[in-house]
């Protein structure tokens, strides 16, 4: 393709780089803007000077957020939730994916089990019945209501069982012939061979539970029990909704400069995801492809 | 009989491994499914799941007699279908462009940046969107000033709102959506390109006759699978961006259920709406999976 360097091609290549740069900028600029606002002084923010770089750099917004006990408290709850969900969901996922990855000749009820679980992906009881079930179990205002209802992420189970199936069969057979039971084979052979897949799913679980805000909102009667995502929903989004309908409040807000505070909280809420992202990116492409495209 | 017992014993560990998951799914997934019986009751929260008075289809009748319901169903389908189309076209387009990039470092940087919004929640992104679109101080407003256009209160304007939903949804997901198509593009046999070059095909013709047919199966598959989302207009996004001024065009089934249940406390009617959505979605998802299985041999497990 050496002879292909025509003028048209050069123009296309130039345009292509330009367009993809624009698309990247569209994804990045709003985030940079929020970051710049969070580090700017309230005067600079309210006079509309802040675009992509902090003006009159200050940490005041962050200091104020860090002094709010609700913020810190909800962050602790979020960490607790992520920790619990991580242990419970990953254990259940591994334990379930292994039997479901066996052939029907080894595990007769496999297909029945699979349909039992996959049916929950096709049909759900919906919001209100789920709420009633949680309430009747006495789990309102308990952190377990955020962890247990989604304790078996079926989609992750399917990804993992497909990965288990791709492992060399001879290894598992050898282990069973050598007298190891199914439990030992799972923990000693299958799990160590599946570290990349398990790592991917672990990151999915962490990000999913860190981001999940709705269950906190409906299952917690008292805001004291909100995890960070639900708390942020109430301070970043809800207040803004009331603001939209009341013009008097808009001017009031600019004086107090709530915008810097909001921006700081948006950034802090997203920070753990940013920190995990490099690891996530390394793994998730293989994770997505292993589950979705099969011949 | 001995054979049967031996086999049962061999399979016992499998049952034990699955048991905890079965229990959780029974309680937290099948429990709510039984709970849809609320839709056929004059539900009184204090009298348990089956203790209220049974009223047959009254809740549904009430529901479909309300003008709001029809509007909400229309909004849901309208927004969801636009998202499905944009969510298919945009990733294909960007994947094709990315595929033409020779510089590895540039390609990887673009990928890193455009995948990222997918991993942030709609609380975070909603906060950012509200800020950027604000008529008073938002970045988009600045841009419109620069072009000499009047500032628009996008999130408070019922004509704009559905399109804001679609475009911000594309903004969040288009990058992540390219992954599947990029994988399909790298799977195309290089020999096809070589023979196309020998036949005198330029870059454009190669794209037209090799690349596009090469990814067509996966495009059809993704399109088919997305059919299950016709009633999924995106609760997280709408809930974090909408407000009463845009209910007429932005209210969707899921937000309707939420307000009916948690704000009006009409649990029976809200469950009826939810059941309507679940039932229709069940049919749509089943059909889309069946089609994908028939024509693309696609299986999820």
From TrEMBL, chain A:
- GO annotation terms (biological process): transmembrane transport
Recorded GO cellular component terms are:
plasma membrane
Q: Which residues form the ABC transmembrane type-1 domain?
A: 71-280
Q: Which Pfam families match?
A: BPD_transp_1 (PF00528)
Q: Does the keyword Iron-sulfur apply?
A: no
- Membrane-crossing ranges are 12-39, 82-101, 113-134, 146-164, 185-210, 263-280
Q: What is its main location?
A: membrane
Q: Which SUPFAM superfamilies match?
A: MetI-like (SSF161098)
Q: Where in the cell is it found?
A: Cell membrane
By its UniProt entry, which CDD domains does this protein fall under?
TM_PBP2
Report the PANTHER family cross-referenced here.
ABC TRANSPORTER PERMEASE PROTEIN MG189-RELATED-RELATED (PTHR43744), POLYGALACTURONAN_RHAMNOGALACTURONAN TRANSPORT SYSTEM PERMEASE PROTEIN YTCP (PTHR43744:SF9)
- Annotated protein name in UniProt: Putative aldouronate transport system permease protein
Q: What is the lineage of its organism?
A: Bacteria, Bacillati, Bacillota, Bacilli, Bacillales
TrEMBL record, chain B:
Give the UniProt subcellular location, in the record's own words.
Answer: Cell membrane
- Which Pfam family, just one, is annotated for this protein? BPD_transp_1
Superkingdom to which the source organism belongs: Bacteria
Q: Which InterPro entries match?
A: MetI-like (IPR000515), MetI-like_sf (IPR035906), UgpAE/MalFG_permease (IPR050809)
User: How does this protein lie in the membrane?
Assistant: Multi-pass membrane protein
Where is this protein chiefly located?
A: membrane
Sorted alphabetically, the Gene Ontology cellular component annotations on this record are: plasma membrane
**SUPFAM superfamilies for the chain:** MetI-like
> What keywords is this UniProt entry annotated with?
Cell membrane, Membrane, Transmembrane, Transmembrane helix, Transport
Membrane-spanning intervals of the chain: 72-98, 119-140, 174-196, 208-231, 267-292
Q: Which residues form the ABC transmembrane type-1 domain?
A: 73-288
Question: Can you cite a GO biological process for this protein?
Answer: transmembrane transport
Q: Which PANTHER family match?
A: BLL4140 PROTEIN
Q: Give the similarity note.
A: Belongs to the binding-protein-dependent transport system permease family.
Q: What is this protein called?
A: Putative aldouronate transport system permease protein
User: Which source organism does the UniProt entry give?
Assistant: Cohnella lupini
């Amino acid at each position: 393709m050496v002879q292909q360097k025509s003028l048209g091609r050069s123009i296309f290549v130039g345009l292509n780089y330009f367009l993809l740069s624009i698309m990247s900028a569209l994804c990045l600029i709003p985030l940079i803007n929020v970051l710049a606002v969070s580090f700017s002084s309230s005067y600079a923010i309210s006079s509309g000077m802040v675009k992509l770089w902090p003006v009159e750099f200050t940490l005041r917004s962050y200091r104020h957020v860090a002094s709010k006990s609700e913020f810190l408290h909800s962050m602790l709850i979020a960490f607790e939730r992520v920790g619990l969900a991580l242990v419970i969901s990953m254990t259940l996922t591994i334990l379930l994916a292994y039997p479901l990855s066996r052939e029907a000749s080894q595990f007769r009820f496999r297909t029945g089990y699979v349909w039992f679980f996959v049916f929950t992906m096709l049909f759900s009881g919906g919001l209100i019945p789920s709420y009633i079930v949680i309430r009747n179990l006495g789990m309102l205002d308990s952190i377990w209501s955020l962890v247990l209802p989604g304790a078996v992420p079926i989609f992750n189970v399917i990804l993992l069982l497909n990965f288990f199936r791709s492992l060399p069969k001879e290894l598992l057979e050898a282990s069973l012939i050598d007298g190891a039971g199914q439990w030992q084979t799972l923990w000693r052979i299958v799990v160590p061979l599946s570290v990349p897949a398990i790592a991917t799913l672990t990151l999915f679980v962490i990000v999913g539970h860190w981001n999940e805000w709705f269950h906190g909102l409906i299952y917690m009667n008292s805001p004291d029990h909100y995890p960070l995502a639900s708390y942020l929903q109430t301070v970043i989004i809800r207040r803004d909704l009331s603001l939209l309908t009341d013009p008097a409040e808009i001017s009031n807000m600019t004086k107090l400069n709530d915008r810097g505070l909001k921006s700081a909280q948006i950034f802090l809420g997203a920070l753990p995801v940013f920190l995990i992202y490099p690891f996530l990116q390394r793994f998730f492409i293989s994770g997505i492809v292993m589950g979705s495209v099969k011949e | 009989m001995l054979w049967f017992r031996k086999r049962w014993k061999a399979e016992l560990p499998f049952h034990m491994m699955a048991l905890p998951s079965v229990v959780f799914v029974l309680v937290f997934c099948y429990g709510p499914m039984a709970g849809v019986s609320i839709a056929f009751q004059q539900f009184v929260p204090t009298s348990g799941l089956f203790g209220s008075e049974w009223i047959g289809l009254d809740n549904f009748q009430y529901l479909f007699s309300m003008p709001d319901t029809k509007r909400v169903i229309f909004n849901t389908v309208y927004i969801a279908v636009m998202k499905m189309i944009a969510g298919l076209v945009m990733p294909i387009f960007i994947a094709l462009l990315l595929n033409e990039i020779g510089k590895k470092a540039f390609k990887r940087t673009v990928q890193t940046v455009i995948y990222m919004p997918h991993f942030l929640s709609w609380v975070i992104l909603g906060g950012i969107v509200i800020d950027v679109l604000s008529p008073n101080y938002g970045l988009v407003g600045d841009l419109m000033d620069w072009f000499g256009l009047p500032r628009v209160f996008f999130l408070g304007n019922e004509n704009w709102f559905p399109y804001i939903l679609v475009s911000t949804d594309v903004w969040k997901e288009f990058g992540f959506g390219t992954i599947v198509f990029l994988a399909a593009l790298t799977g195309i046999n290089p020999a096809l390109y070589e023979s196309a070059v020998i036949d005198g095909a330029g870059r454009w013709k190669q794209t037209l006759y090799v690349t596009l047919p090469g990814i067509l199966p996966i495009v059809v598959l993704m399109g088919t699978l997305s059919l299950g989302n016709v009633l999924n207009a995106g609760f997280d996004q709408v809930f974090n961006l909408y407000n009463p001024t845009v209910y007429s065009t932005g209210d969707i089934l899921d937000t309707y259920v939420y307000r009916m249940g948690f704000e009006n406390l009409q649990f029976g009617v809200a469950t009826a709406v939810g059941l309507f959505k679940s039932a229709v979605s069940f049919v749509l998802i089943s059909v889309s999976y069946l089609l994908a299985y028939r024509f693309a041999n696609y299986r999820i497990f």
